[in-house]
Design brief:
Blueprint (H helix, E strand, L loop, with lengths): L10 E5 H14 L5 E9 L2 E8 L5 E3 L2 E3 L11 E8 L8 H5 L5 E6 L7 E4 L5 E2 L1 E4 L8
Parallel strand pairs: 1-3, 1-10, 6-7
Antiparallel strand pairs: 2-3, 2-6, 4-5, 7-8, 8-9
Length: 140
């Protein structure tokens, strides 16, 4: 029996409030890199990011940021990481790709504004990123 693997074109939808939090966090950490865990959901190739977590025991410097994955509490909503590049380049480094976590990696470059954040897959390919200005409300 053959199974068809349906290929989905990935895209990332980032809540504006989460983007604002990322920008604020990275400006506070500058000139060091900042690192955060992305929380959200993924369905049919669409990755919706609606929250953040500060990784426990994270370590940062002017050219690096990381955390020991073994100390993370179990949470199915973790879908990737975001970190800053104070140098001004949003390209993922070889180290970034070798330490890829989750489905997507966001990199925000200095000067940390709405137009300086980019999404990448584990192969270093860009993923289309759009900002959601309207928060989703539960309809019960």
């Amino acid at each position: 029996m053959f199974f068809k693997n349906k290929k989905f074109e990935r895209k990332v939808l980032l809540d504006k409030s989460v983007l604002d939090s990322i920008i604020t966090f990275c400006k506070m950490k500058h000139p060091n890199e900042g690192i955060l865990i992305l929380k959200g959901k993924s369905k049919n190739g669409q990755i919706k990011i609606d929250g953040l977590a500060i990784p426990p025991f994270n370590f940062t410097g002017p050219t690096f940021a990381g955390f020991p994955h073994s100390f993370l509490p179990f949470d199915n909503s973790y879908i990737g990481i975001v970190h800053s590049h104070p140098s001004g380049s949003a390209e993922p480094s070889v180290t970034d790709l070798n330490n890829f976590f989750g489905l997507v990696s966001l990199i925000i470059q200095s000067p940390y504004d709405d137009d300086s954040i980019f999404a990448w897959d584990s192969g270093g390919n860009t993923i289309p990123l759009s900002i959601n200005d309207e928060p989703e409300t539960d309809k019960n």
